[in-house]
Design goal:
The protein is globular. The longest helix is centred in the first third of the chain and has 13 residues, at 5-17. Helix content is 28%, strand content 26%. Strands 3, 4, 5, 6, 7, 8, 9 and 10 form an eight-stranded mixed sheet that branches. The chain has a two-stranded antiparallel ribbon with strand order 1-2. The protein is of the alpha/beta class. The structure holds S-adenosyl-L-homocysteine. The site of S-adenosyl-L-homocysteine has 24 residues, from β2, α4 and β4.
Length: 228
């Protein structure tokens, strides 16, 4: 057993007691080493149910939120899934064990490159990630069976993402409302332009922002934070 094994078991039990019943989701969380996705200085906190910083003002989501979003996607092994907001790559790694292929988009190139290295090290070969504006979706690969957005949209999901979802498909996305509250929302596409919408749980996500961040926008010290 490695040093994280006991903490990992404790985390899985906590997730189960908080309503995560899907055993495939729990087992994927058990298999993916979260310590490989957090900065070195925070590795001992990897199995606490906490959001942690990953550099460039971004965060790796709390395990409970990752589990809740993954469970709400109702995945199967034939699904083609789009993720917007690769970040550390942790959510994509969890998804990769539960579906056929993950397409993930990140607007910060340094984060994307660090995530790609982790996928390589962990031999997760069914993830394709690019640096682009995920608010536009990924037209060449559309339509998707499932879409998961791990940054918060304002008022409503981007139209491009709703359009790139297959009929019968599910999108899970945090949305911020006019009163400042943020909720995790589930959109099920029932017809070409009709959706069944419900909220799942209140959340706190970094914002979904347009455009790719230019390389010269970074300070050298910010880039060091990403290279863990
Ligand atoms: N899923 C990540 C958590 C990501 S935090 C993980 O498991 O670690 C949200 C991420 O969304 C940030 O990295 C942020 O840069 C990214 N993001 C925000 N707006 C985006 C957009 N329009 N396109 C792609 N990525 C975006």
């Amino acid at each position: 057993m490695n040093q994280f094994a006991t903490r990992k078991i404790r985390l899985i039990m906590k997730l189960r007691s908080e309503g995560i019943q899907d055993t495939a989701v729990l087992s994927a969380i058990e298999k993916i080493p979260r310590e490989a996705f957090v900065p070195g200085s925070m590795r001992d906190q990897a199995y606490e149910d906490k959001t942690l910083p990953i550099g460039l003002e971004q965060t790796i989501s709390q395990p409970f939120v990752v589990a809740t979003m993954t469970q709400a996607l109702e995945l199967d092994y034939n699904h083609k899934v789009l993720e917007v907001g690769t970040g550390s790559g942790y959510q994509a790694a969890v998804l990769s064990l539960l579906c056929r292929r993950v397409y993930s988009i990140e607007r910060h190139r340094p984060l994307l490159e660090a995530a790609e290295q982790r996928f390589e090290q962990l031999k997760l070969r069914n993830i394709t990630a690019i640096c682009a504006d995920g608010m536009k979706g990924w037209q060449e690969q559309a339509p998707f069976d499932r879409i998961i957005v791990t940054a918060c949209a304002q008022i409503a999901p981007p139209d491009a993402l709703l359009n790139q979802l297959k009929e019968g498909g599910i999108m899970i996305i945090p949305v911020a409302f006019a009163d400042g509250s943020q909720k995790l929302m589930r959109y099920k596409k029932e017809g070409e332009d009709t959706f069944a919408v419900r909220d799942i749980v209140p959340v706190r996500f970094v914002p979904l922002l347009p455009n790719v961040v230019a390389r010269n926008a970074y300070q050298p010290q910010e880039l060091q934070e990403v290279a863990f």
